């Protein structure tokens, strides 16, 4: 019995000690929580804790997450329908390209002096008509042999070359030694892939006889993909260029501007004699456009520089297709470039205005905040 009494006393003492320890912890916790500095630190930590959408969704019950997964599956089906939509858009582009072509053929004739526009075809009302009339009156007052002048000018001189010079994206590619070649450029055409063929488009650069190469047409084909990626279907935003192919330029002897010849001295290790060798190395030129970087078919990734070069190439091809070829005369006169510049300026103006509004709101908050 004595042993049992001792055991009970020991248990009672342990319970009492545990209660005392618990009471001390509670008191200590109360004291800590009443400390303003501790409370402020905890609040700051809570404020800085970022709640991402994914972490928020993870808190849902399994039944809700199951429904969300079903919505994602519907979204993938929507992406595939969107891909079909863009395929039909491509078919429409092909159809309307055939309707545009007779107009573009007539444009080529006027540019190259193969035909003269009639009075009706050349009648155009200009916004600066009064100024042009005054300039015309002054011109008539000057004695010049207009007939002789007219017969010496054929078509519209340097039409496509002027466009290259006017558009920054293209002028950056053109070297001084490219210029005399581009002056032989007579037309640029866009051709769409045939029905049933993989989606693509080709650019055709038509050249007149020249001293540089024997090709009459240089081509560049851009291959496109219009289907959601199996590993990332939600990234689909429409057709994208995935690869491109150029063509072989048949350069005449000594006229290849895409390479340059350099002289290099070599010293023999044993005899110490020096010899001079000539070597051809790549040269900057617009005509490298027809020898693009190939996208690796074995899944190997390109280095950063190659990826940048390829992305720029795709952008240029798209710009030729969407802007230059359909609106060539406006890029020749510079009107399309002015429109592009105005659009960019408007965007910048809106950004500046929004930034100003945000700054104003911050200042307002600072004035009303009692802590400041």
Automatic annotation (TrEMBL):
SUPFAM superfamilies, A to Z: NAP-like (SSF143113)
Entry superkingdom: Eukaryota
Positions of the UniProt region annotated as Disordered: 1-32, 336-372
Localisation per UniProt entry: Nucleus
UniProt entry keywords in alphabetical sequence: Nucleus
Claim: Metal-binding is one of the keywords in the record: no
GO cellular component, one term: nucleus
Gene3D superfamilies membership: 1.20.5.1500, Nucleosome assembly protein (3.30.1120.90)
A biological process from GO: nucleosome assembly
Main location class: nucleus
Protein's UniProt keywords contain Nucleus: yes
Signal peptide limits: none
Family stated for the protein in its record: Belongs to the nucleosome assembly protein (NAP) family.
Annotated protein name in UniProt: Nucleosome assembly protein 1 like 4
Organism per entry: Serinus canaria
